[in-house]
From TrEMBL, chains A, B:
One Gene Ontology MF term: transcription cis-regulatory region binding
InterPro entries registered for this protein in UniProt: Homeodomain-like_sf, HTH-type_TetR-like_transc_reg, HTH_TetR, Tet_transcr_reg_TetR-rel_C_sf, TetR_C_16
Keyword DNA-binding listed: yes
Organism: Kibdelosporangium aridum
Domain HTH tetR-type stretches: 19-79
Designated name of the protein: Transcriptional regulator, TetR family
Keywords: DNA-binding
Residue range(s) of DNA binding per entry: 42-61
Gene3D superfamilies (alphabetical): Homeodomain-like, Tetracycline Repressor, domain 2
Pfam families: TetR_C_16 (PF17920), TetR_N (PF00440)
Disordered, as annotated region: 1-21
Amino acid sequence: MTTSAEQEGKRRGRRPAGADTKNALIEAAREVFTEQGYEGATVRAIAKRAGVDPAMVNHWFGGKEGLFAQSVLQLPVDPAVIANEIASGDINTLGDRVVRRFLTVWDSTGGGQFAALVRSVAGHEMAVHGLRDIFLKQIFMRVAAKTGADNAMFRATLVASQLIGMGMVRYVAKFEPLASNDIDTMAAAVGPTVQRYFTGEIASPS
Amino acid sequence: MTTSAEQEGKRRGRRPAGADTKNALIEAAREVFTEQGYEGATVRAIAKRAGVDPAMVNHWFGGKEGLFAQSVLQLPVDPAVIANEIASGDINTLGDRVVRRFLTVWDSTGGGQFAALVRSVAGHEMAVHGLRDIFLKQIFMRVAAKTGADNAMFRATLVASQLIGMGMVRYVAKFEPLASNDIDTMAAAVGPTVQRYFTGEIASPS
């Protein structure tokens, strides 16, 4: 199938918008993010380096955050997809869904992907900025906005704190029994925490 | 003032049990833990390397865990002291006390000590074992034992997950507003989570 994006690519005499374009963008993104940092890197500069139309970044990655997620952070799943999955469904089982979704993704790589994420965050200012945009703005803020709760950003950072800590103990420190407990057990224990951070009473900073 | 420990040290013709002895043990411990790993290193071997009596390890550090905490992990506070502080007092405000105690210690170094801890855990199997002994066995298990709750080890790992995640977001990723919120605000938000992990209903692994 030839997409309109591919036709556009050919019309302009650039690379076709297939897997080649996607890979070229990922390679170029790694270079430009490394050179310019997360804030400094622009979609335009990355597309230019890859020799493709800037529109291809939105087409394949939904924007700069998505491209960063899949190039530098090498996340296996598009953050926007996770956000939509989590935000749809019963608001009262939000915490349960979030814990299950993240553990399922992280468990699928034996925790290797989470550990790589922590190393990149501990080592690079760039990864921190990118992660903040992806996890907080793309995922948690979107969910918090849907719940209509106040203090959305504080709630989002609290959710992030519990999920990151769960990943640290499960995949990096490997403290038992948390490291080996099945996802049902983890969701029953940690789900209510995430639920409360999203929809429960959370006092504003004094 | 001359302590009985110092007199003992002099009697045996070894170094006096003052700051010199303490520093010699810390230096020797760093070497022996690095060479032998946490499990392999013995109090006897460390004392021998330092040229002091093995009893000095208990005298100054309360044992192998305490020596590891102050040599390799460079924790500013004796874990046993923290455990006693946390375990004493009203059981219903346990979560609040834990969050305040850890944030107070970690904030005092601007988060630098927490970040160093994460780096050491991410990089060294040794640090993971030591940290498990210190945080889980020395601190949280002691507290969980006092509450008399079932699933003590699972509860301890859940508490660790929330505290480690809080530290990651506050000191390493520095996500706002969590990174700048005062300790009262953090205790109100995160305290109930830690409280539930210690004393609330937590299902056993299925």
